[in-house]
Amino acid sequence: MIYGIGTDLVDIQRIKRMKSLDSFANKILGKLELEEYTCMNNLKAQYLGKQFAAKEAFVKALGTGFRNPIFPSDIEIIRNDLGQPEIVLSESAKSYVEDLGIIKSHVSLADESNHLIAFAVLET
Fold first, then answer.
1. If phi over 0 gives left and psi between -120 and 50 gives alpha, with beta otherwise, what is residue 104?
2. Which residues are listed as membrane-spanning (predicted)?
3. How confident is the model at residue 65 (pLDDT cuts 50, 70, 90)?
4. What's the whole-model pTM score?
5. Residue 56: which H helix or E strand, with range?
6. What CA–CA distance (Å, rounded) separates 116 from 80?
7. Residue ranges of the domains in the chain?
8. 35 a known binding residue?
9. Torsion, Cα of 55, 105, 82, 79 (10° steps)
10. Which of 2, 45, 77, 90 has a C-alpha 20 to 30 A away from that of 39?
11. 98 among annotated binding-site residues
């Protein structure tokens, strides 16, 4: 059964106008995502936008927003060998989500020249 559905839309120009992409990255990204981010050259803003949109979509599907025990860096969006995005949670976030009976999560990302969108579905 579906527990929740969430979506988020990001204007890439809003990300590009940030004072410091690196500061934003350190605030919202988890360890694995930061490793990926450091390899990006001129795609850092797009990467950050996609990651943030996916995290927002996830907490919207959860129905909580960002609050204890789930903050942006507790949710990592990792690409598998085929490039499909997968959600990886910190131990505290994973425990919280499992206590809600959520057993599976899905996320889809798409982008155009000026916009990034993420869609998340959580299953029980």
1. beta
2. none
3. very high
4. 0.94
5. helix 44-62
6. 20
7. 2-123
8. no
9. 30
10. 90
11. no
